[in-house]
Amino acid sequence: MNYYIGDTHFGDDRVMRLTGRPFSSVAEMNEAIVNNWNMRIHQKDTVYILGDFALDDNSASIMESLNGKKRLILGNHDRTLTKRILRQFDSVATIRTIDDSGKSVCLCHYPLLSYENSVYGGYQVFGHIHNNTNDIAFSLQQKLPRSFNCSADVIGLTPRTLDELIIMKKEGQI
Q1: H helix or E strand, kind and range, residue 98
Q2: pTM of the full predicted structure?
Q3: Domains of the chain by range and CATH?
Q4: Distance (Å, rounded) from C-alpha 56 to C-alpha 116?
Q5: Is the pLDDT of residue 152 over 90?
């Protein structure tokens, strides 16, 4: 099964303030995301991380504790990660289009207005904008029916399937 989550920002105390994450410490935030992840993800599952995985290489132990195959789509904050941690991912890319149960899904950290197969019923999953309603992309993406913000802050700090993202979008949650 494929799952998606962006902007976990493990080890980043700044993100707690910027997004309003309800934790008193980075350790508490990290633990909550790891627990949410491992309650859903089995070793055979694949999780696409839509960028901004962690603040730095101090997250290596977190990486080892996460279930499943982990595929990173690079985000703007991932430039601080070294080859030591990047090698732990099953794959690393800037943009990638995959097949998820017969659906074409374009993966990029940033929201795109047009993407591979967008005119043929394809989907896009991205991160980057978190729950920032001041970002123009936040309101624009809400008008795009097959474009899904999977920033951890809008999907309950838990990896989600494409079908769950589709339902969340229809219900106005993302």
Answers
A1: strand 95-100
A2: 0.96
A3: 2-169 (3.60.21.10)
A4: 31
A5: yes
